[in-house]
Amino acid sequence: ELIEEYFQRYTLRFEGRDPSVDKVQQLVSSRGAPKKTMRALNTVTGQFEWIDPAQVEYAILSHTWDLSGEQEYNSVRDLQLSAESTIFQNPALSFKVMQACAIARRDGFRYIWIDSCCIDKSSSSELSESINSMFDWYRRGAICYAFLADVPNRAHSDALSRFEGSRWFKRGWTLQELIAPRSLVFLSADWEVFGTKTTLIATVAKVTGVEEGVLRHQKALSSVPVVVRMSWAANRETTRVEDKAYSLFGIFGIHLNTLYGEGENAFLRLEKEILIAIPDQTMFAWGSDTAIPSSRLLQYPAYHRPTVTLYEGVGPRPRSLVALSPNNFAKSKDIHPISHQRWDAFGLSQIPIPNFTSSPYGIRAKLPLLPISTFFGSTPFDQSLSPNTSWYLLLLACTRSGQVLARVCFAQKSQNPLHPKLLQRGYIVLSHPEEQRVEEGLDMVTLNPTQLSLWRKDLLVETVYMPFFMNSSDAPIPPSVPRPSASSLGNVAIRIIEEKWCRVALSEAQGYSPELLAIKSRATKDQTSAASTTYSLLLPRRDLAIRVDFVFDYQKDSTGLPGYSLRVTASTFPPNAPESVDLISESNGQAVTRWYEESGIPDITLRTHTGGGVTLIQHLAEVPPMEEDLDAHWFKLRVEIIENVRVRMSVQEELEPEDLDWFAEFWDLVLREYMEAQYLTRIEWFTEFWDYISREFTDCEDFVH
After folding, report:
1. Which of 22, 307, 397, 561 has its CA at 20 to 30 Å from residue 75's CA atom?
2. Distances from the Cα of 429 to the Cαs of 114, 266, 297, 378, 379, in angstroms?
3. What structural domains does the chain harbor?
4. Which of 268-282, 484-498, 643-657 has the lowest mean pLDDT?
């Protein structure tokens, strides 16, 4: 510990000036000290400290850099060395750093990480390590504050539209800073809470294109196709061209050295590593919005048939099969990978599972190729501009609207079978002489699975090399604090406190006045002398009141060990109404068996008196005991509310006979339109509708009759 303390002080004043610093650091690590890999700012002392992000709770800031520049590491360090008390009293400290620390300190966080001042960018090795660790740091942070410098607070009439158009949603680095954190609070230009990622989930998903399941960590990022993840980054801006690639390392779970100055090579290096780590062929499906259906190429009438010409290159376009920028994926969100079993279903069992490896000639893989002569059949095509090449359609294991995608490509002919087959991108050009019109080069077509089955005998499976012309990432988060099992809690008092940032967000952004009440413990019926503890969270607002009850029951599990179980019940009421009289909606008491794990408490959706709905997102996490009661188990409670939710009618809610008049009218209309009810079973929309009705109203005898 003495060496650790000496090392902290020594590096603050002499970092990088004496080789003995490295010796001290090496000595510390050799003695089994915790691995401290993140330089964070202490929100109380204003000093830099090295922390282990896996063990220490911290806040983290996401922001867009000011066009005039940001206060960086060396500047803040100079203030620390010159300050007699704390840097927070020094007017030279930037307002952004000061406010970020104040917000984190208010919410109970001792440490905060700010990229602009916590990375020594004069050290290329530290910068590279930080970039490779950044996604994980944002993922592990207890809270992420996203400061939106161009968004006013909620009091402004155009606040929401300004939020949707914020520069923060257009920058490259903020994509991972949006996806990685589990808890994210948006701060307006005056540092007031605007909302959270959860409460604004629909708006954020619409603006960014990232689906809600990914934003809420309900869907693993690794399960999203490569092409879709790339589409999220399309048209986002970065100051340095290399950052278009570096900002995506965490999105794909890739780790590479950063080499500022390599330009567009950075993105090509990233694509190569993605192919090796994630053999997802949607990577090659960029620009597929211009893919031409094979039927259009093959079914022209003879008198109107265009001239088909094969070109190795059209204008300045590169010949690589991979994209040069995330922008090329802008219109590729609806691409879906297909499993290897689907090839078997198409009668193409000879296609192997691809394995992409690196070689001096490019990425090597065994892939299916359809000779272009087979594709065109009797349709004539002109290859006079590239006589020494063999032309193919590279079949990709992905579909768009149910059609298999294929890239137009070519390889130079060789008399030596040992020469590698270098596959490059080519183009089909359609000329219409009678119309004096030429369609631009088409480099992708869509194929009907039936057509593929007919061509399976002509399909080639060959080892090819795809040159990368250098011209131009669930694992769950290891908990920072050990989570006990229910049986390990024992007969110990339960204490719950609110997350401060969450309380502020509910109040400032949504108008609720949270109040957490502890109801006195009561003895249980099994005479174990234990107690059941209830905490009630009241969330009143001028137009609505919500109550959530958390009931901890002391009991023995199947093994005979004591422990606590948790039941959660939520209710909604009109504002200032007696609960027993004016109950609007109440959830069933949900027995939560794994509430102490990262999985958290199931979401609860309730109706409001206006006919709308709210969804409660809740989470409990154990924290170290506090001095008020060192023997108790302490938990932090996080509650976020998604509003304007569409609520389905519960089957438990009875329907009056007059509520079904609409169906009688609907059925009369159906009979008039289709005459024979048997025909309805062949109408897809009606089948889906009837399934829905059956699910929703199975307990309603009037409806069935």
Report:
1. 22
2. 52, 32, 11, 17, 14
3. 34-219 (3.40.50), 281-466 (no CATH), 486-643 (no CATH), 657-704 (no CATH)
4. 643-657
